[in-house]
Amino acid sequence: MSETPMSRAGTAEPDYSLWLFGYGSLIYKTGFAFMERRPASITGWARRFWQGSHDHRGTLETPGRVATLVPQAGAVCHGMAYLITPDVLEGLDVREKNGYRRVVTDLYFDDGERSETLVYMATEGNEAWLGEASALEIARQISTAAGPSGPNRDYLLMLADSIREMGHDDDHVEAIEQALLALEGRAGGS
Ligand code: SIN
After folding, report:
1. CA nearest neighbour of 20 among 44, 2, 36
2. Whose CA is nearest to atom 7 of ligand 1?
3. Active site residue 61
4. Based on the structure, what is the number of domains in the chain?
5. In 5, 52, 64, 169, which residue has its Cα 20 to 30 A from 125's Cα atom?
6. How many angstroms does the Cα of residue 30 sit away from the middle of ligand 1?
7. pLDDT tens digits, residue range 37-65?
8. If DSSP codes are grouped into helix, strand and coil, which group holds residue 52?
9. Given CA atoms 61, 66, 71, 74 in this order, what sign does their dihedral have?
10. 1 domain-assigned
11. Which structural domain range is residue 51 located in?
12. What would the pLDDT profile of 65-87 be if each residue is shown by its tens digit?
């Protein structure tokens, strides 16, 4: 896992860079090289735990639930933007292969600057799509699922913590977090 900017020394670098916006595990778990990391947001998209995970936080038999984006007028999704070189996308395409595709959209940095960004999103109808469910149903599913990347609950709790650490709220994520903690007998969080 790499949390540090990519070294430029002695490497044959592609001659351009691009922004990648992360709103799920890409906020708290990089594992790829980047040159800059800046809090940012995209608009018109809402973060939702509507995507199944067969390969990271669940299995084919017991899929987990992970974040994707759904179109919603007026929505603002806060996350983390990374300045990367295009070669990094090869590894990311493998990591995000379970239903995600790359989309280009406008990017708004928290300091007011703007740019364009790539974002991985899993749209309705992909092979791992699960769709809408109540916070309690989602929390129940998350509480029992685990995959090669670890327990599904850790994905949820790390994402909820990361959003708070960036100084933002996400009602959807918080509702599922509270439901999960209640199921675990830890209502109110710890
Ligand atoms: C993302 O974090 O931007 C994509 C979804 C995920 O990998 O959790």
Report:
1. 36
2. 25
3. no
4. 1
5. 169
6. 10
7. 999 999 999 999 999 999 999 999 999 99
8. strand
9. positive
10. no
11. 18-123+131-183
12. 999 999 999 999 999 999 999 99
